[in-house]
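lol so apparently i was supposed to do this last week
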Amino acid sequence: MTEERRRIAVLVSGGGSNLQALIDECAKPDSPARIVLVLSNNADAFGLQRAAKAGIATAVVNHRDFPDRSSFEQAISRELAARDVEIVCLAGFMRVLTPGFVENWHDRMLNIHPSLLPAYKGLHTHERALADGMAEHGCTVHLVRPALDDGPLLIQAKVPVLPEDDADRLAARVLVQEHRIYPAALRLLAADAVTVDGEQALINGRPGPLIWTDAD
Ligand code: GAR
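anyway here it is w/ glycinamide ribonucleotide bound
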């Protein structure tokens, strides 16, 4: 089975709790995916330690070492090619990628975002959802397109906003759901259960996204 698994790279900038969820998923004997590389732009990212502990190869490509975005991305591309990577997972990777790089990974690159896209693209999603008095918030795994936090939606998890919530409490409950939907979405993509029609993801032939609640 090992050789049939899709070869995955995970790109992280920080703590890597989503990376850990992906590592745990890919450790399951029936996983269709295998993480062959964890790459960070930040040598101090705790995610690199998580990868090393799991025996996964790591690479650091520090954007500060490059004169521009495209040479930074060329260095990333060399690392991905050296490991024959087939699918890229962005997991808290906090660098904006150029359209050229993104299109090289068309329908083969996933991102997790802490909102119910298309609502609240960008940063400070929890603060903004609270400020707007939203009753519901959540997270999304999507295929990556050149525009920020854009692309066909695979799975969303909804989280009720509670009266006592502040941004940290809400973020913590959303993060629990991120750790559920990201492994599930990677499993679907790696198992070839995802197709794209126009800009709509189809999951096992049915229009996405799958919607999960925290009660699922
Ligand atoms: C996660 O909440 C992820 O959704 C968010 O960064 C955090 C990374 O946490 N990503 C974005 O905001 C991307 N737009 P982690 O390092 O513990 O996985």
